[in-house]
Write a structure and sequence with these properties.
- This protein is an alpha+beta fold.
- The protein contains three helices and six strands.
- It has helices at about 10-20, 25-30, 50-60, and strands at about 35-40, 45, 60-75, 80-90, 95-105, 110-120.
- It has a six-stranded mixed sheet.
- A hairpin with a 4-residue loop joins β4 (about 80-90) and β5.
- The longest helix is centred in the middle third of the chain and has 14 residues, at about 50-60.
- It starts with 9 loop residues before the first helix and ends in a 12-residue tail after the last strand.
Length: about 130
């Protein structure tokens, strides 16, 4: 688990959730997200269970990828960043998405809330909802 002095960033969280084969989803989530975690992506709110269902689905279609944080700001318990996610899917296609994120840390340093907007830079039209696909 993160501590206040070693807070996670979104790149580390996404690497554990999506890009580390063999890492148990519950363990990955517990490292970075509180039990009462909530996330809003492109206007849709999900609780932790719904968020993990989304990640479980992505794990079935994501073969690999990378996360590049372009801008990042931490102030107290608040976090903001702009990052690009490049995904290679199991069907051989690729998706590139830019994400604008605002979040809040819990006292233990894990994410309690994230609100984000996604912008697909490259990919098939069917991949436009990848940020909230189930």
């Amino acid at each position: 688990m993160a501590t206040a002095t070693s807070r996670p960033d979104i790149a580390a969280a996404l690497a554990d959730l999506l890009l580390t084969p063999g890492l148990d989803l519950a363990e990955a989530a517990d490292r970075h997200f509180t039990p009462d975690y909530r996330q809003r992506t492109d206007g849709r709110w999900d609780d932790r269970g719904e968020f993990l269902a989304h990640i479980a689905h992505l794990r079935t279609i994501v073969a690999g990828g990378s996360v590049q944080v372009l801008d990042e700001l931490v102030q107290g318990n608040l976090y903001a960043d702009r990052h690009v996610v490049d995904v290679a899917k199991t069907d051989g296609s690729t998706v590139r998405t830019e994400v604008y994120l605002f979040g809040e840390f819990a006292p233990d340093g894990r994410f309690r809330r994230i609100e984000e907007t996604t912008l697909m830079l490259r990919g098939a039209e069917a991949d436009r909802n990848m940020g909230s696909a189930r």
